[in-house]
């Protein structure tokens, strides 16, 4: 504490804003979107229903949902000139770097998004983002396979359209497996919002300068990419593969995690800033992993390794004392993999899920006219000193 400034690195004890969108109770492991329990929404709602709820505050009537879905379908195609930007990326470009670049580029394609003098078109930009993110997201995967990109098929629902664009090939009929589409629907709902996490706080901070929605969302995608945040879902699978290739000795890796300072090893998918009890999303995903893999007849050895790690950690003083439980990223990659999604696309899947939450929070920040974010600091640098000519340095 110096003068009037309270230092709170990582904002561990600072409320940055007021919000009516998502409620978390870290001690009880509770997550609600606009008052609805995540368990109910994951079981009973569609992803676009949840997107509408987060963004507009209420579950849509049938008529509102029909109109919302129709408006999104009308915007699923992407300006063909965006493909020229995309073609400039190397084949091994990480899909998250491609996604944040192309979303940022959308602000250049829609100048009405940053010209405050024009009538407000926020709802149109919201629809464009929800509609085009899945289309853009699949381009990287198709390029990595040497396959032609697919155009959206507007006779399909949101999740089925994404799967079609990911996996359809011009040489044969592709039919979406309803088990896969439903699993994707649940995963996207579980990722849809999470109050003031790192990427959402980034979207709010960028948007607080009155930067346009596309630029703010692009910043959120970049923040999500970090391995401590959404990038953890890719890290988890790579970690589980390493453990499997090293003989599957989970006790060895638990010990390495406990000596993180010496080993530099972190148990990705464990721990959370807010949840000091189970992450309710991890519970749902763990159960879904068993269901989906059984239904698809997939036997993934890393699922057993994940369960072994969880079991060992939950009975180990180091983790218990630090209240480290599996988080949303611990099991999600196992399902994505069973759905045929490649590892380097896992964080892209997180971004597609989190998009409505980012949009809802950006919209709320603008509507409540939050001031521009400009935190202070505690200065630890040099006191006043005089300039030294270079000949005397
Ligand atoms: C997401 O904020 C959100 O809501 C995020 C998210 C969302 O929906 O938006 O939920 C999504 O990002 C989930 C988190 C994904 N990240 C990971 O799985 C990476 C591994 N987890 C950690 O890096 C960590 O737990 C964080 C980043 C999630 C939280 O970090 P904190 O709150 O700053 O906690 P910390 O790093 O200070 O850890 C506290 C202690 C430390 O030990 P000590 O220094 O006190 O001895 O716990 C240890 C840490 O070393 N610790 C771990 C650990 N996580 C924390 N030890 C081993 N393995 C881990 N995973």
Automatic annotation (TrEMBL):
Keywords: Acyltransferase, Transferase, Tricarboxylic acid cycle. Pfam families: Citrate_synt (PF00285). CDD domains: EcCS_like. It catalyses: oxaloacetate + acetyl-CoA + H2O = citrate + CoA + H(+). One of its GO terms (molecular function) is citrate synthase activity. SUPFAM superfamilies: Citrate synthase (SSF48256). GO terms for biological process: tricarboxylic acid cycle. The active site is at residues 272, 329. PROSITE patterns: CITRATE_SYNTHASE (PS00480). One of its GO terms (cellular component) is cytoplasm. This is Citrate synthase. Pathway: Carbohydrate metabolism; tricarboxylic acid cycle; isocitrate from oxaloacetate: step 1/2.
